Amino acid sequence: MDVVAYGVVADERPLLENAFRGRHRLRCLDLVLDRDTATTAAGCAVVCSSVNDVLDERVLTALADGGTRLVTQRATGHNNIDLEAARRLGLSVARVSSYSPHSVAEFAWALALAVNRRVPRAVSRTRDFDFRLDGLLGRDFHGRTAGILGTGRIGAAFARIAAGFGMRLLGADVARNPECEALGVEYVDRDRLFAEADLVSLHLPLLPDTHHVVDAAALRRMKDDAILVNTSRGGLIDAQALVETLRAGRLDGVGLDVYEEEAGVFFFDRSLEVMTDDTLARLMTFRNVLVSSHQAYFTRDAVGQIVDATARTVEDHLAGRVSENFLVPPPAPH
C-alpha cells in the first residue's frame, strides 16, 4: 500500500521509515498538506498528516478523489480536520489518542523556569561576556500557586512536577482527575484560578468552548506578576489581547510553544523573509516572552510512540479493526 506523510521533519523521518519498512511504500514530504498540495497524495491510500496541515472539505475531497481512504494524524489534536466532511466522503480519520504526557509537561516547566529565571536574557548576555545580574531577578516557585487549566494526562504530569516544587495546586476542568486530587489539586472555577495562580499552564484541547479561554477578561483577572505558559494549542489564547496586556507592563513572563496563526510559520525557516504577522512579531519583541517552535512533544520517547501508533492504525484499518485512535471509523460495508 502507498502511504504519504506530510510535514515530516528530519529527526522524525528515520523513525517513520523504520516503522513502515517491509510493510508499505512510504513517501515522506516536508510539505504542508493544503489545497495547493493535496494532489501530491494522488494514488496513496493512506495520508499521514501533521497538526499544521489544512484538512478542510476541499482538501479532503481532493484526497478522496485521488484514492485516499485513511487520514491518520501524527498528533492528538484534530481541530484542523473537518470530521463531518470526512464522514460524507467515506474517509476514515484517526489520530494518536495518547503518547508520553511527560514530554509536554516537562517542556511546559522548561518554559516556566526559563522565563522566571530570565535564562534567555542571561544566555544572550554571557555570549557577549556580559555577566551582570541586573534584570535577572527571578523568584522561587516553592510556596507559590500553580493553576493548571486542563487536568488530563499531561496536566496531571505537570501537577506532579509542581507538587515536587512544593507549590499549592489549583485545577480547572470539566471533570476531576482523581490522580490530581490525590496530589492535592483543589478544583476551582476558571475565574478563581486566573485570579489566584502565580503560574498558569494550559493543557486543554482546542474546542469551540475553549477557543480564547485566555481572553482579555481572563488576562485582566491574572496577577500583574503571573507567568503564563501554553504548550497545548495556540487558539486557547487571544494573542492580540496578550500583546495589549504585555504592553501595559503586566505579566512577569510568558512561554509560548504554540501560536494561533502558526500554520505556515512554525516548522519552517522564515529567517530570510519579512515577518508579516504583526502580532507574532510584536510578541517576540517583549523580553519576558519566550516563543518556541511547537516542540513540546518532540522527544525520542514521544515521537517514537506517535510513529508506532500511526503504523498500528494503518494495520488496524487494513484489518477492519477500530481502535481508540479512530475519530471516523471505516464506513460499514453494504
Structure description:
The chain is α/β, with parallel strands linked by helices and 334 residues long. It folds into 2 domains: 128 residues, NAD(P)-binding Rossmann-like Domain (Rossmann fold, 3-Layer(aba) Sandwich), CATH 3.40.50; 191 residues, NAD(P)-binding Rossmann-like Domain (Rossmann fold), CATH 3.40.50.720. It contains 12 helices and 13 strands. The chain has a 7-stranded parallel β-sheet with strand order 8-7-6-9-10-11-12, sandwiched between helices. Helix 1 runs parallel beside helix 12 and helix 4 crosses helix 6. The model has no long low-confidence stretch (mean pLDDT 95).
Number of strands: 13
Beta fraction = 5-15%
Counting structural domains, the number is: 2
Q: In terms of structural class, how would the helical and strand content be classed?
A: alpha/beta
User: What is the CA–CA distance across the termini?
Assistant: 23 Å
Biggest pleated sheet: 7 strands, parallel
Helix content percent band:
25-40%
From N to C, what is the helix and strand string? EHEEHEHEHHEHEHEHEHEHEHEHE
CATH architecture of the largest domain: 3-Layer(aba) Sandwich
Output the radius of gyration: 21 Å
The coarse overall form would be: globular
Low-confidence stretches: none
Could you say what the CATH topology of the largest domain is called?
Rossmann fold
Number of alpha- plus pi-helical segments: 12
Tell me the strand order in the biggest sheet: 8-7-6-9-10-11-12
Task: Give the name of the CATH superfamily of the largest domain.
Answer: NAD(P)-binding Rossmann-like Domain
- CATH class call of the largest domain: Alpha Beta
